[in-house]
Every structure is written in structure tokens, then in C-alpha cells.
Amino acid sequence: MADDAVTRREFLSNVVGAGTLGAAAAAPDPRKTRSYNPDMEYRRLGRTNLMISAVSLGGHWKRIPYKPGTEEFKKNRRDVVYACLEHGINYVDACSRSEVLVYAEAVKGRREEIYFGFDSTGARDPKIAGSLEKLKEGFDETLKASGLDYVDLWRITIREHATRNTPEEIENVVAALEWAKRTGRARFTGISTHHRPWIAEAVAKYPQLEVIVTPYAAGSKEKPVGSMFEAFRKYDVGFIGIKPFASGALFASQGVPDSPTKQEDDERARLALRYVLCCDVLAATIPGLITVDQVKNAAAAVRERRQFDEVESQRHRAAIEAMWNRLPPNYQWLREWEWV
């Protein structure tokens, strides 16, 4: 194992964490990261100083043709995780208790080969976000149920859109994150949110927000003025981008594996990943990969050149226009992430 195994006892002896607020430090040697593969690109996750794969694994398993909990489903998740490790993908992000349990089982015996980030507390529920003790209890219960001794990144998912957390709930979330890091339960902490206008203010106010998990799709662009990226750079915050494929809207098949449009879907996926990886603030993009072939395709995108030629630019523009037009009603909010 390239990266040192980390135990809770070691956390407790050194819970300050890597890095300080301010300008970004030099990136550590990527060859010392977990599951290093010279064909993969690794990026520094802000002041955590973790070097994670530029394409990592999102926790969602939409459109898997197996019922969760079945042996076929469990084998699929193991096969995908093992393929990720083989190709140097070294971060998995789970955003619900069920996802945490599934991936904890999939990485059993190989825990120290991957960085694990998760949320399981249900902070979108005001009954939970309104109680610091419930946030703590939910975290501890998930650790126990999953058999994990610690998590590399606890990023609490907060409410967004029209139903946003109250100031009191936010203070509870921040206190819970601070507690988890201080006690060695989490190496690093952050949040996941879709409420972009609040992000810059939040990372300036709360040093506990070392990482932000938020959308950055294949059609997203940095605002010339007032971008959230300005705060990420100033406070050296790690940025993990979700929804690179806009929940499958990028594809004619909506992301169904082995569809008649598979070849075109694969090409669009690589174009999308090449595009988002041009963002200099992005540490990793985390598509939900549901087959081993999709893992191989994502890893191949990292090895391709980033700059589009004219033909590729035209294909990308056409794919993005179709993607925005194909968004289902419950994903229309993603249009707000065209300019970030």
C-alpha cells in the first residue's frame, strides 16, 4: 500500500489535519497516493492534501439492471470498485446510508486502497439537522453498521433549492463536522449542496468546510466575475464535481448500459469528462459508473488530450444543447449550474 494505513488512534494524535487556510500548497507526490496508476491523473483535494483521481466513483447506481441487495447487484458493485482500483480510481463518494453500506462491503479487505467519502445523516430532514446529537448518532450508527473504523471525508448533504437549512441547522452541521474530525472519526470534513449562492459565503465563514461537493456538469462554465471558484482558490477548498452527465441527460439512452447507442454514449462520456477536467479548480468529477466497461471508458478519457479540435467542439456543443433540452422536470434546477 502506497499510502500509510491510518487508524483512529493515529487520528487522535494528530487531528489538526493537513494544510492551513490561504494559498494552495504544493501538491504531494501522486505516486504515494492510494492505488496509484501512472495512467491516471491525480489532483490535490484542497488543503486536505489528499491526492485523488481526477475521475472518481460516484455512489449512485441508477439504471443498474439488478435489484439492490441481490447477489448480482453486490457482484456488480464489487466488480466496478475493483476495476476502479485497477485503473487508479482511488476515491468513492457515497451520499446515503444505503450507499455507504454497499460500498463498505465492496471494499472490504481493500479499505486502505481507496479514499472513502460519505454522508448518511439525513441533514435535509429538519428533525435531524436541528439536533447536534442526532447528527452525531446518525454518523456513529453508520460507521458501526458499515464496519468502517473511520471515513476519509464526511461531507454532510444539506438542503437546497426552496427548502434550505436554517442558520441554527447549519451551525449544528458545522459543530458535528468539527466533532467528527476532533475525535478521529473523520479525517476531513465538508458539505454537499446545490445552493450555489451560499457556497462562497460558507467557505469563508467555516474552516470546517475543507471540501465542497457540488454540481459541475459537462456544460458548466466559470463566471467571469463572482464565481464560487474565487472562494475555493482563496481558502484552498477541495472541490468535487457531481452530475458531469446531468443524471444521464447527456445520453440518448439516458445512461442505460449496453443500449443501441452505446458507442455514441461512450464518446459523449469521454468528451464530457475531458471538458470538466479542464477546470483548474476541480479535484475530481464523480460519475456514477455502473459497469466495468464504463470504468474503462472513464479512465480512457483521462488519457485523451483535453483540447478539443473543431469537430470535437461542434460535437460537444450539440451534445450539451441536447442535454439541457433533455433534462427531466425534476432536474431543471441543474440549468442554474451552467455558469458557476
What features would you highlight for this structure?
38% helix, disordered N terminus, TIM Barrel, 340 residues, alpha/beta, 10 strands, 11 helices, single chain, 8-stranded parallel β-sheet
Structural features, described:
The chain has 340 residues and is of the alpha/beta class. The protein has one domain: TIM Barrel (Alpha-Beta Barrel). The chain has eleven helices and ten strands. An eight-stranded parallel sheet has the order 3-4-5-6-7-8-9-10. It has a two-stranded antiparallel sheet with strand order 1-2. Helix 9 packs across helix 10 (292-303). It is globular and about 55 Å long. It starts with 7 loop residues before the first helix and ends in a 14-residue tail after the last helix.
- Sketch the major β-sheet: 8 strands, parallel
Structure class: alpha/beta
Architecture per CATH nomenclature, i.e. the level-2 architecture: Alpha-Beta Barrel
- What are the secondary-structure elements, in order, as H or E? HEEEHEHEHHEHEHEHEHEHH
Give the secondary structure arrangement, pairings included.
Layout: H1 8-13, E1 42-44, E2 51-53, E3 57-58, H2 71-86, E4 91-94, H3 97-106, E5 115-118, H4 126-129, H5 132-146, E6 151-157, H6 167-182, E7 186-192, H7 196-205, E8 211-215, H8 228-235, E9 238-242, H9 262-276, E10 284-285, H10 292-303, H11 310-326
Parallel strand pairs: 3-4, 4-5, 5-6, 6-7, 7-8, 8-9, 9-10
Antiparallel strand pairs: 1-2
Helix pairs in contact: 2-3, 2-10, 5-6, 7-8, 9-10
